[in-house]
Specification:
The chain has a domain of about 120 residues. About 20% of the residues lie in helices and about 10% in strands. The chain contains 6 helices and 8 strands. A hairpin with a 2-residue loop joins β1 and β2. The chain starts with a helix and ends in a 19-residue tail after the last helix. The relative contact order is 0.13.
Length: about 290
């Protein structure tokens, strides 16, 4: 009987290891790269007077009225970007002509580009090199962080994921989940998407514009948490806890997991791209860490 109990205990430990391997508290500051060489929160958020409080005199007078933003966004007003060329065509990101609080692109993409554009706007102190140590399986350890000045021709955004008010998340069809979108832009998962949520989770944060869910920079990235994401029963069927992530991704995402058969990083993309998910193709494979 003791031998049977020992065998059962060993099996239980082996089963628990994949889940436990990713449930970990961060070992470094969660702001990571956004500590901004010691300047901290004030590098992006000016507690008084917006960008003018940071000594920037050329900015739009309303800068800072959203999130106390302290970077100069004036060079970006009214600019158009062509992004994400694919079999679906390309997407146009048109930035508002003024600091427009009614358009989610202002607080969720325009503000990000004030540091991460590198073409029209050049954020102070940006080195255009990813902060984190990337896995040895990557071809290069120098991942660019400036969208419009990434080593190809300056001003090229075709190699960047579509964002903005035209980057609308869809349901049904060949490439999308079996979900529905309400009259106010809320996404309701169908049975297969619900199963995916149990196997991995739904962590993305769509931004509604004209009653449609859109992809903005902050849909996939949480700019305040570089290395950790909180998993709970409300967003996933995974065991609750703090999970490792990278690149400010809003979900368990660790290409350095060391598991050859891991589908963890692919699962993150499948939150929107349901057509490529196991569940939409007759499979039901939980997340492998």
């Amino acid at each position: 009987m003791k031998k049977v109990m020992l065998v059962l205990l060993a099996i239980a430990v082996v089963i628990a290891i994949p889940a436990m391997a990713q449930i970990q508290n961060p070992t470094s500051d969660v702001l990571g790269a956004h500590l901004n060489y010691g300047r901290g929160c004030a590098a992006c958020h000016a507690p008084h007077s917006g960008a003018h409080g940071g000594g920037i005199a050329t900015t739009d007078g309303n800068t800072g009225s959203i999130a106390l933003w302290g970077q100069d966004v004036a060079p970006l007003f009214g600019k158009s970007y062509t992004t994400g060329q694919s079999e679906h065509g390309s997407y146009t990101l048109t930035l508002p002509a003024t600091w427009d609080g009614t358009d989610p692109v202002t607080a969720n993409t325009l503000t990000c580009l004030s540091c991460h554009d590198g073409n029209y706007a050049t954020g102070a102190m940006m080195k255009n090199t990813v902060y984190e140590t990337v896995p040895s399986t990557y071809a290069s350890n120098n991942i660019p962080t400036l969208l419009g000045n990434d080593g190809t021709s300056k001003g090229n955004y075709l190699n960047d994921h579509p964002v903005g008010d035209q980057a609308i998340i869809g349901c049904g069809g060949t490439y999308d989940w079996d979900c529905t979108i309400s009259a106010t832009g809320t996404i309701t998962p169908g049975p297969l998407m619900t199963q995916f949520k149990a196997n991995y989770g739904i962590f993305i944060s769509p931004k509604v514009y004209n009653n449609q869910p859109t992809v903005q920079c902050t849909t996939c990235h949480n700019q305040h948490l570089m290395n950790v994401v909180k998993v709970s029963a409300s967003n996933s069927g995974l065991p609750a806890g703090n999970y490792a992530t990278m690149f400010f991704v809003r979900a368990p995402y660790n290409p350095n997991s060391g598991t050859a058969g891991s589908n963890q990083t692919a699962q993150f993309c499948r939150e929107c791209h349901g057509g490529e998910a196991n569940e939409m193709n007759g499979g039901n494979l939980p997340t492998v860490f």
